[in-house]
Amino acid sequence: MMNSAVTAISVTPARASAPAGAPASGLPATITTLRPASGHDRAERIRDVVDAFRRLRESLARFNRLLAARAGEEPARGAADSALQPLLSALARHVDPATFARYRELKRAIRDARRLDKTRETLFSDAFCLDIEAMRRTAAELERLDTAFVGLCVEHVLAQHEQRSQVPGDTHTA
Fold first, then answer.
1. What is the distance between the alpha carbons of residues 161 and 164, in angstroms, rounded to a whole number?
2. Any domain includes 116
3. Pick from 150, 172, 154, 127: which is nearest to 59 by CA?
4. For residues 68 and 75, is the Cβ–Cβ distance under 8 A?
5. Is residue 170 part of a domain?
6. 3-state helix, strand, coil in the chain (%, to 5)
7. What's the number of domains the chain is made of?
């Protein structure tokens, strides 16, 4: 296992023509750090942001498939592989404000996700990639949005099931 202070090293061999009288230790003349440990933290933050985008995209695709099925439409193929913008647009199109109890929260989440989708384009810019705290905040915001969408979807499905289970004139629910 590598030392946590260094994630990669470069070894330069000692010169073959070492001065007379110098010890022949066989050790390299210099060891140079190529990537400091902070590079590991940076790589973890990039992974966190990419994973959070992927989870959000997959949640939006599931939500869209559910709403499309309820509307009797064919779910889009490969939707989980698409960018967020088409998924967000499809979600806004599928949701009926009259039947979606927390429509305002959904619209706000869609707006926030559209704003954060622009971060995806700047993910590999030097300004963003070198700012560990900005990446941490972005990953947290993406996770918050994913949780919000999942919660809204589950709440909507439960409300739809409850409405369907109620029979006019019957006081019992299934």
1. 5
2. yes
3. 150
4. yes
5. no
6. 60, 10, 30
7. 1
